[in-house]
Amino acid sequence: MLSTIYIIAITAEAMTGALAAGRRNMDLFGVMVIAFLTALGGGTVRDIVLGHYPIGWTQHPEYIWLVLSAGLFTVLIARFMHRFGKIFLILDAFGLIAFTLIGCEVALGMGYHPTVVIMAGMTTGIAGGVLRDILCSRVPVVFRHELYASVALLVALSYLGLGELGVQHDINVLMSFALGLVIRLCAIYRGWRLPVFSYRQPID
Amino acid sequence: MLSTIYIIAITAEAMTGALAAGRRNMDLFGVMVIAFLTALGGGTVRDIVLGHYPIGWTQHPEYIWLVLSAGLFTVLIARFMHRFGKIFLILDAFGLIAFTLIGCEVALGMGYHPTVVIMAGMTTGIAGGVLRDILCSRVPVVFRHELYASVALLVALSYLGLGELGVQHDINVLMSFALGLVIRLCAIYRGWRLPVFSYRQPID
Amino acid sequence: MLSTIYIIAITAEAMTGALAAGRRNMDLFGVMVIAFLTALGGGTVRDIVLGHYPIGWTQHPEYIWLVLSAGLFTVLIARFMHRFGKIFLILDAFGLIAFTLIGCEVALGMGYHPTVVIMAGMTTGIAGGVLRDILCSRVPVVFRHELYASVALLVALSYLGLGELGVQHDINVLMSFALGLVIRLCAIYRGWRLPVFSYRQPID
């Protein structure tokens, strides 16, 4: 199940990447790179930090082709994209949660400390979007937006906690997934967000 | 032969890095870092992603000294640089193609899938320039400029294709190199470029 | 001793990260990420480049908690921070030097060439601040500021040189530390800086 969701997720993330590249008037190649990094960059960063070689997508070239096609497809249908805004946000939420759970699983399988497992999950969930925003020269949305990273954190905590309690793996995934989805959708529709920290001293 | 071209290439790339740093009024240290990352950053990113340790330049300190010297030299002769604009672009084209071929060879030698080999070649060719542009806070030129990444792609495809056809290695390198050079020079002199994707929806 | 200073250092660096995030109006999560990367990012980059796995902080979750707490604490006391400006700069100098020495030790222990050892030390000392500035979309301060990277360079050179001369390890650390501190404080109080390279040709 996680694997089907994963495929939907990388497709959706690749599309958000392509749109961000379009906002910066990038050429087709730039669109492809940003689509690729948005979709597969989170897992790449996680694998490098954990020393988990070979990196996932190098063993699954079909994922590479999928995200590149999704980027190209986005360019073709861009004019209609605003009609799908909501569907998009929901697919993106699926992606965030699926990435987070997969990230936790990888770190757990390598025997890392629970704190590192949580960070691996969050990194997988959000680093792709951070890379996209850095390459498009803007302050990463995830650091300023409504609850997004917090959803990744809660999903990771729930997954680890339920695992500790001995909940069977598939049920654990299902429950953590549902929890994340509910919170993320509330954040979107009700505008929940973390407090912002504004500091106005001159730069020293 | 590839190794001689490689040395010319990292020198030329270090110089473009130093100039970019100068446009941002960086101090001498900043110039060195940007020169280093522009010249050797592409290979570093490739080695990290492929898990190819130890990373190339850590075993060849002479390359480190070469690119640092090139950066320093650029600062000294900066006022004359605009006279060499065209020579520069051609050296840079040599670099792009040599980096791409070397990147393909490394990935091929590690037994990666052809799709990954192509990506390794392209990464080696262009990631240095992307790092340079990120550190200088601008949208990477390679995503908006005339055919550049596309040249890396064609060179990688040619190298893999001719290899598959059983063409002898040195002839393959020569032919792929020539192909890349012709296309790159046409792109420069005729202004060939990829279509740009402009997307004007508000950021969600 | 280096280990006590290390703990002070990552705390101070986490606080500078949190303040930088505050200047960009990031939410609490953004503050945490920037605090973490500023404090532990330099060592992470060094470990990845040297292939030194597992990465330091993944084996010391207590450091993760320390820097996250420091980030949170900074948000709470931000309004009083400007009173501690000088103390802060001194703690930051301790951090820079301690990080540099630790970086040199790691690379030396892995048998790298002296040039690479120096670069590993400098990377550990300054990469955290560079990551902080990239994520906050500004040209890294270290490339434009008064002597900072140069201090890391001198500390690394001194540590390697004294080691080569057969000076006992603890005395070496102490002497290199003192040298770095004196130069850094002079740079701060007397405004010492490297010459700036300004290049005003149009971007080609």
From TrEMBL, chains A, B, C:
Residues spanning the membrane: 6-22, 29-51, 63-81, 88-110, 116-135, 147-167, 173-192
Chain ranges of the Glycine transporter domain: 5-78, 90-161
Main localization of the protein described in the UniProt heading: membrane
Domain of life, source organism: Bacteria
Subcellular location: Cell membrane
Pfam families in UniProt: Gly_transporter (PF03458)
Keyword Transmembrane: yes
InterPro entries in the cross-refs: Gly_transporter
Membrane topology: Multi-pass membrane protein
Keyword terms, alphabetized: Cell membrane, Membrane, Transmembrane, Transmembrane helix
Keyword Transmembrane: yes
PANTHER family xref list: INNER MEMBRANE PROTEIN (PTHR30506), UPF0126 INNER MEMBRANE PROTEIN YADS-RELATED (PTHR30506:SF3)
Family: Belongs to the UPF0126 family.
Protein name in UniProt: UPF0126 membrane protein
Organism the protein comes from: Jeongeupia chitinilytica
